[in-house]
Design goal:
Layout lengths: L1 H60 L1 H15 L13 E5 L5 E2 L5 E6 L8 E6 L2 E3 L5 E2 L5 E5 L7 E10 L5 E10 L8 E2 L5 E7 L2 E3 L2 E4 L4 E6 L8 E2 L21 E5 L4 E6 L9 E6 L1
Parallel strand pairs: 2-9, 10-13, 11-14, 13-18
Antiparallel strand pairs: 1-3, 3-7, 4-5, 4-8, 6-7, 8-9, 11-12, 14-16, 15-17, 17-18
The structure holds copper (II) ion (CU).
């Protein structure tokens, strides 16, 4: 009898212990999915935050896009809308740059790529949805850029450049960009015509004046007046080739760089080191 009692007691204790273990196991299991959900939520939130931060960073890094916004807002007011930027494969940059507002109609459209173009590539320009007459498409000797002239100045309006970039295997990719010509902008350019030499200072990550009008043959001197190193580069960024001779080396504090403008037209320039900060300007040569 005693043995039986002890056996019963022992098995009761064993069952109780097993129950406790099983219960705590279940409890642990039960809490596990909960914590997984919480962890996932945390990760999602972190990812969302990261995405947000990345978007913001992208936005900040592209002054072109910022300019887009401005141009778009402005054009929305006057019932015109800047077209979307569509980058064909291997597209690098263009002159004018997508979203630019220029005071004068460009005489030349230039598009740069990082792959060799084939001569069947094409460029079509419209202003306010009407075709603009353009010259023959010319490929650069290195095959990395194509351009076309606009022989008759087409005036104010919203321009769309639609292009077909074709490669040596004759496959083509389509792309487009837009810009605005508004001669009222000229009023915000500093008139410095009739001078042999004009000074543009580089200070506080800005050119001053940033927008100016000079006469043909004027020597423009850019002087760095702060400790940050600057550059003067031709648009577009990063190809710097619409006016290839307008490109400085590093300009340190108190140093300067000069360029004599001989060709009439409107020329965009920028500091390639501070392009993301919007350090850019335009010169009209008359
Ligand atoms: Cu700079």
């Amino acid at each position: 009898m005693k043995w039986y009692k002890y056996g019963l007691l022992l098995s009761t204790v064993a069952i109780a212990m097993l129950t406790v273990v099983a219960c705590s196991g279940a409890k642990a299991q039960g809490s596990s999915p909960g914590s997984q959900v919480m962890e996932k939520k945390g990760a999602d939130a972190a990812m969302d935050k990261k995405d947000g931060a990345m978007e913001k960073k992208d936005g900040d890094a592209m002054p072109g896009e910022k300019k887009d916004g401005t141009a778009m807002d402005k054009k929305d007011d006057s019932m015109m809308k800047l077209p979307d930027l569509i980058r064909a494969a291997h597209f690098v940059d263009s002159s004018p740059t997508h979203g630019d507002t220029t005071a004068q109609a460009p005489e030349k459209i230039m598009i740069n790529f990082n792959f060799t173009l084939h001569e069947v590539s094409s460029i079509a320009v419209t202003k306010d949805a009407k075709p603009v007459e353009t010259g023959k498409v010319v490929l650069a000797p290195n095959g990395l850029s194509m351009s076309t002239n606009i022989p008759k100045p087409a005036g104010n309006g919203l321009y769309l450049v639609a292009y077909k970039a074709c490669w040596p295997d004759r496959s083509c990719h389509e792309g487009q960009f837009g810009f605005v010509v508004d001669d009222m902008k000229k009023m915000s350019y500093q008139d410095m015509t009739g001078k042999n030499e004009v000074l543009v200072s580089m200070k506080d990550l800005k050119f001053s004046p940033s927008h100016l009008i000079v006469s043909k043959g004027t020597k423009v001197v850019w002087k760095n007046q702060e400790s940050t190193v600057h550059f003067v580069n031709s648009d577009p960024h990063p190809s710097h080739n619409v006016l290839p001779s307008l490109n400085s080396l590093t300009i340190k504090m108190a140093e300067d760089y000069s360029y004599t403008f001989t060709a009439a037209g409107e020329w965009g320039f920028h500091c390639s080191a501070h392009y993301p900060d919007g350090m850019a300007g335009r010169i009209i040569v008359v």
